[in-house]
Design goal:
Blueprint: H1 10-50, H2 58-68, H3 70-77, H4 100-128, H5 130-151, H6 168-186, H7 191-194, H8 201-225
Length: about 230
């Protein structure tokens, strides 16, 4: 039941619009968290199956969950409202949040993140051993998840639209997260604490390059699904 206090039926429309936007933002945050975690799981699973060293130290996962996950997830919950939600069909009352299409998006996006992280891990293993491999995997996964926050702004491609930069909280989360992970990778005093090694410019470019590749690939997948 709904009670109008201002005798204005436009209030109903506004309430529905706000409710749909809020529900969408919650789903975007969940999608961001689950797809990123799925990517990390795939990397660990691959390493276990083929008999490689464990890609991540416990402190890596703690850093990811507390910083590079939480900041963009909160920012996505504050994604600006849009009116295009009113053009969507009403969802069934008994519809689960985890629909087949939703799970497919999480799976494909997680697969992309996992693939980039695994590639970084293999490059590091080949060039410098397990510590370098773990460092590159950690850096790539962290940066990939920061980049992935922009992918999760919408289920439609937004990379060439004004909407791509309309969330100042997400931009702030990205910049802060990038500064933190870069500091961990480049400041010698933090290396023992985070179980990483110093990266040269070429390896840092590998981390950033592989992470950024998630953006055009996932945006293209959104375009194809559209």
């Amino acid at each position: 039941a709904m009670v109008l206090t201002d005798d204005n039926f436009a209030t109903i429309v506004k309430a529905v619009e706000n409710g749909r936007n809020l529900y969408r933002n919650i789903k975007l945050s969940i999608q961001f968290l689950l797809s990123g975690n799925f990517g990390a799981i795939l990397t660990v699973l691959f390493a276990s199956i083929v008999g490689l060293p464990v890609p991540f130290a416990p402190v890596h996962l703690l850093f990811i969950n507390l910083l590079t996950d939480s900041l963009p997830a909160i920012a996505l919950g504050l994604e600006p409202h849009t009116k295009d939600v009113m053009s969507e069909k009403p969802r069934p009352i008994n519809e689960s949040i985890l629909t087949k299409d939703y799970l497919l998006r999480i799976g494909t996006e997680g697969l992309c993140i996992g693939a980039m992280t695994t590639i970084a891990f293999l490059i590091g293993l080949n060039e410098g051993g397990s510590l370098l491999g773990s460092t590159l995997a950690f850096g790539t996964l962290c940066t990939s998840r920061l980049v992935h926050g922009f992918n999760c702004k919408s289920n439609k491609p937004v990379i060439f639209t004004n909407r791509f930069f309309n969330n100042v909280y997400l931009i702030g989360a990205f910049v802060l997260g990038l500064l933190l992970i870069t500091g961990v990778l480049m400041i010698p005093g933090l290396h023992n604490l985070f179980n990483v090694q110093t990266l040269d410019g070429a390896h840092l470019l590998i981390v950033y390059g592989l992470a950024l590749l998630n953006l055009p690939i996932i945006q293209l997948l959104k375009k194809l699904r559209k």
